[in-house]
Amino acid sequence: MSETTIIFPKSKRAPAEEFRKGSRNRLVREIRKRPGFQACLAFLIILVTIGVIAPYVVPYDPTAISLKDKNQDPSSTHLFGTDFLGRDLFSLTLCGVQTSLLIACVTVACALVAGTLVGCVAGYYGGVVDEILSRCVDLFLAFPGIIFALALLALIGAGILNMIIALTLSQWAIYARLMRGQVISIKNLEYVQSARTAGLTNTRIMMQHLVPNTIMPVIILATLDIGHVILSIAGLSFLGLGIPPGIPEWGSMIGVGKEFLRTAPLNVIVPGLAITVTVLVFNILGEGLRDILDVREEQVIPA
Amino acid sequence: MTLLSVQDLNVHFPTGDGTVHASRDVSFSMESGEVMGLIGETGSGKSVIGQAIIRLLPSSARVTGTINFNGQDLTMLQEHAMHSLRGRAISLVPQNPAGSLDPLVRNGMQIGEIFIERGLRKNTAWEKACDLLVAVGLIPSERISKEYPHELSGGMRQRLTTSIAIAEHSCLIIADEPTKGLDYHARETTARVLSEIRTRDNASLLLITHDLYLAEHLCDWIAVLYAGEIVEVGPARQIFDHPRHPYTQALIRAMPKNGLVPLDGQSPSLMAIPGGCCFTDRCSCHSELCRREHPDLVQESLVGGVRCHHPCSS
User: Fold this and answer.
1) Nearest-CA residue of chain B relative to A203?
2) What is the ipTM score, two decimals?
3) Could you tell me if B87 and B31 are in contact, meaning their C-beta atoms sit under 8 angstroms apart?
4) What is the pTM of this model?
């Protein structure tokens, strides 16, 4: 006979409630159990530190071109070697952290706020409002995100701000849809009803009761999404539509460096590894966070 | 002065399988400061009446009739006007206190947010909330106000939801099964809190309950509901001492102190209500007439009425 499993359904309300109960202890305990998560957390802190201080501490000016030093191998003077224009790859890669993290975090934050608001309004009011907003969301979800951002960037031109706009527009709908479902699942619960009975305004009900009780899965999605957005940034820059030359960015480093793949593979390998590691860190963090905050609907325990 | 007067209130829920008649031709009125009890078994349409008054029925509900509150017909009121009455003039003590408190909001803020909504500063609101906690006996209020709802016992949550309902000195409080799921001691406390509110604010209380013990202790008036309609209405003493409708008699006989005699059978489905008297099948003294004709609520005196072809004489 196949392995029997017992499924314990959890109440919709429980996770957040449980999380608050002695949250500090539980959080610390759950993190202690996960060495991988701890390592990623440490790495994230290092990444953020690099992002903040890199422009001031790197050994070389990342944009200084020195053609006589081009395509050098790693040495004590150039830790990762130099690229095809003689720029120090170590400095360039470290300064790229700032660009990627900044754009990714701002994009995800904007998408999160916009999506949460739209999803919450659509879910709570329902009816015509929901119908209009949901069709809007569907419209945005109908295009593959990267293609949508690509088309938009081609239209409005490259640049950090335009990049943020394009990526936010391609991402917000996912948050809106998740939030809408979350809100619909709790809006008929008694505490929302009794808030209405007490004569609270809709704005207050949404901000004080609906959003705090539904935001957890959205936040976890956001953590996972940062990795995804970093990849998109790199992809768009690789195609030359993202970050203008002159600003250190991993995607564009690979884009211009690919010509020298045979003669000087470090041009591609170094930024490529940086992207891989960063995205991996965010994915592991997101997954770990999901397990720790325990927003899975049910827990499966083998009997 | 008449505070609330409900006339011919009908509530239907159209569903795929037919229409559910949750409330049929319900009429009653309440004076200021009075306690009116709506009693009846589960599914008799008690809660629907309470929700119809505060206008928080699901959007699928079809409501006809008039609900006159302080000279305004609540069924005709615009939503924003109704919104400004909720929590201020009319408040509701919800049925399930455990589910009616936001799990992520501190107890003090559950009450305090109502005051913040009305424009008070946060610390003033918090102080007023603590005062209310003391008023319903949640002491020490300092500590309790900082805790979360899951840290309270069932009876304490009940008192907390009650304190939310009385925060604004409403003139009509609808208490929807306030003793549901509470033990004897917590029930006593709830009864005491409710009667204290009444003396404090001179508020009218519409008590929706199947707890006859509570109804007997608190109510001035009782309306007995069966299958969505009022079968007997009158002063509480008269209903408990001299019940005239066979259903009311059966209810009272089923009280523990009166011998816990169960009533056989089940109330009719609200989707297929029989043509004659709804209670015929369970009634010990029915006749041919009962099956044929639906009895009217006969006003026997100024004070009460009974919906029965063969009411027992007192």
Assistant:
1) B117
2) 0.78
3) no
4) 0.79
